[in-house]
């Protein structure tokens, strides 16, 4: 199936930022979107907004650290729309701090959300894609994995783990499945909300100074999704021109 219209797309981390922008853009272009995130009130409002604009949407509270929740997201897509064409694994957390702070709980949370959350999505969607004979994984990573800087070691490690995982998945996928990795740079999102105050201020300053709108990343995802079945857009980097 070429193009976007009619495709069923499940999105994690859909309640704000890149996930929300992606849901709105793909729905506007005719996709049926299935929204997953931990904040049901935001999902409900987003689905209503899409439906009021003439689109189709379903939603379910989804914590990507729970494999059962990813299974539920995929099952909702099939129950509501009969299939699943694309899984956008976008949920992520960046708890930035010096390694000397030894914030082991933060490290574990980033591994659970950023890496295991993607793995749980693959486990839920891959059998469905195999059964259908088609499917597309879109995994959101980060430019933090392309240029390693202090304070982001563990965050970058989780994102690069997903990059490696995605390439392995692509090679195992065969000629019927597609795998895309999208690496955003600074984007004006809620990314910094749970970061240590000193680091948070620096990141917010950069976001305010030259951060992209989430719509820019959504357009990159839409570009990959709309390609014909035989075209696999493997890796897209989307960052501000002012970003080092």
Give the neighbour order of strands across the main sheet: 3-2-1-4-5-6-7
SSE arrangement, N to C? EHEHEHEHEHEHHE
Counting DSSP E segments of at least 2 residues, the number of strands comes to: 7
Poorly predicted ranges: none
Summarize the structure.
With 244 residues, the chain is α/β, with parallel strands linked by helices. 48% of the residues lie in helices and 16% in strands.
Explain what the structure shows.
The protein is α/β, with parallel strands linked by helices and 244 residues long. Helices cover 48% and strands 16% of the residues. It has helices at 17-28, 40-52, 67-81, 104-132, 153-173, 197-210, 214-225; strands at 8-12, 32-37, 56-61, 86-89, 135-140, 177-184, 235-238. The protein has a seven-stranded parallel sheet, sandwiched between helices. Helix 1 crosses helix 7 (214-225), helix 3 (67-81) packs parallel to helix 4 (104-132) and helix 4 (104-132) runs parallel beside helix 5. The longest helix is centred in the middle third of the chain and has 29 residues, at 104-132. It starts with 7 loop residues before the first strand and ends in a 6-residue tail after the last strand. The model has no long low-confidence stretch (mean pLDDT 93).
Task: Quickly list its features.
244 residues, 7-stranded parallel beta sheet, globular, 7 strands
């Amino acid at each position: 199936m070429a193009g976007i219209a009619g495709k069923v797309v499940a999105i994690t981390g859909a309640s704000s930022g890149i996930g929300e922008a992606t849901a709105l853009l793909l729905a506007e272009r005719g996709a049926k979107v299935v929204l997953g995130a931990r904040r049901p009130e935001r999902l409900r409002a987003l689905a209503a907004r899409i439906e009021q604009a003439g689109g189709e949407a379903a939603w379910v509270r989804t914590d990507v650290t729970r494999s059962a929740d990813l299974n539920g997201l995929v099952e909702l897509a099939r129950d509501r729309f009969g299939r699943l064409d694309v899984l956008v694994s976008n949920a992520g957390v960046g708890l930035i701090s010096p390694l000397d702070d030894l914030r082991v709980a933060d490290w574990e949370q980033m591994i659970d959300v950023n890496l295991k959350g993607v793995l749980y999505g693959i486990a839920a969607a891959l059998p469905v894609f195999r059964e259908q004979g088609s499917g597309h994984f879109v995994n959101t990573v980060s430019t933090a994995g392309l240029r390693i800087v202090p304070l982001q070691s563990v965050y970058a490690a989780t994102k690069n783990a997903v990059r490696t995982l995605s390439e392995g998945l692509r090679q195992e996928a065969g000629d019927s499945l597609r795998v895309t990795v999208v690496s955003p740079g600074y984007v004006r999102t809620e990314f910094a909300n749970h970061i240590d105050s000193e680091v948070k201020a620096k990141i917010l300053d950069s976001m305010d100074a030259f951060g992209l709108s989430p719509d820019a990343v959504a357009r990159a995802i839409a570009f990959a999704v709309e390609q014909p079945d035989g075209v696999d857009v493997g890796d897209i980097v989307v960052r501000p021109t002012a970003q080092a």
